[in-house]
C-alpha cells in the first residue's frame, strides 16, 4: 500500500474514533454520531492523502535540485589503459614515528 494512502487511512481512522468517542461522551443521538463520523472520515482521508501528495512532490523537487550539483567523473580501470599503479612503499614503525602517536583514553 503506498505511503499516501496509508497515511490518509490512518488519519481518517484516528479522527473517526475520536469523533465517535466525543459524540458518545456528549450524549448526542446515534444518527448524529454516525453522520459526524462519516464526514470526518471522508474529510480527513482526503486531507491526509492530498497533504502527503503535496509533501512528496515538494521534497522530490528539493532532492532533485540538490542532487544535480557537482562534477561528473568517469572512473576508468587501470587495466583498460595498461597503466600500472605503483605499490605503496612499506615503512615499518620505528622509534622516531612513535613520538608522533598520541594516546587517548575514554
Automatic annotation (TrEMBL):
<feature type="region of interest" description="Disordered">
    <location>
        <begin position="69"/>
        <end position="106"/>
    </location>
</feature>
<keyword id="KW-0812">Transmembrane</keyword>
<feature type="transmembrane region" description="Helical">
    <location>
        <begin position="7"/>
        <end position="27"/>
    </location>
</feature>
<feature type="compositionally biased region" description="Basic and acidic residues">
    <location>
        <begin position="71"/>
        <end position="86"/>
    </location>
</feature>
<keyword id="KW-0472">Membrane</keyword>
<protein>
    <submittedName>
        <fullName>Uncharacterized protein</fullName>
    </submittedName>
</protein>
<keyword id="KW-1133">Transmembrane helix</keyword>
<feature type="transmembrane region" description="Helical">
    <location>
        <begin position="33"/>
        <end position="52"/>
    </location>
</feature>
<feature type="compositionally biased region" description="Polar residues">
    <location>
        <begin position="97"/>
        <end position="106"/>
    </location>
</feature>
Amino acid at each position: 500500500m503506498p505511503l499516501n494512502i496509508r497515511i490518509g487511512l490512518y488519519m481518517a481512522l484516528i479522527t473517526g474514533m475520536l469523533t465517535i468517542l466525543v459524540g458518545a461522551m456528549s450524549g448526542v443521538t446515534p444518527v448524529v454520531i454516525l453522520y459526524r463520523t462519516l464526514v470526518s472520515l471522508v474529510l480527513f482521508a482526503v486531507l491526509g492523502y492530498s497533504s502527503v501528495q503535496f509533501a512528496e512532490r515538494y521534497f522530490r523537487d528539493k532532492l532533485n535540485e540538490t542532487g544535480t550539483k557537482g562534477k561528473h567523473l568517469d572512473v576508468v580501470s587501470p587495466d583498460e589503459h595498461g597503466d600500472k599503479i605503483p605499490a605503496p612503499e612499506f615503512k615499518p614503525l620505528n622509534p622516531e614515528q612513535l613520538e608522533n602517536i598520541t594516546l587517548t583514553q575514554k
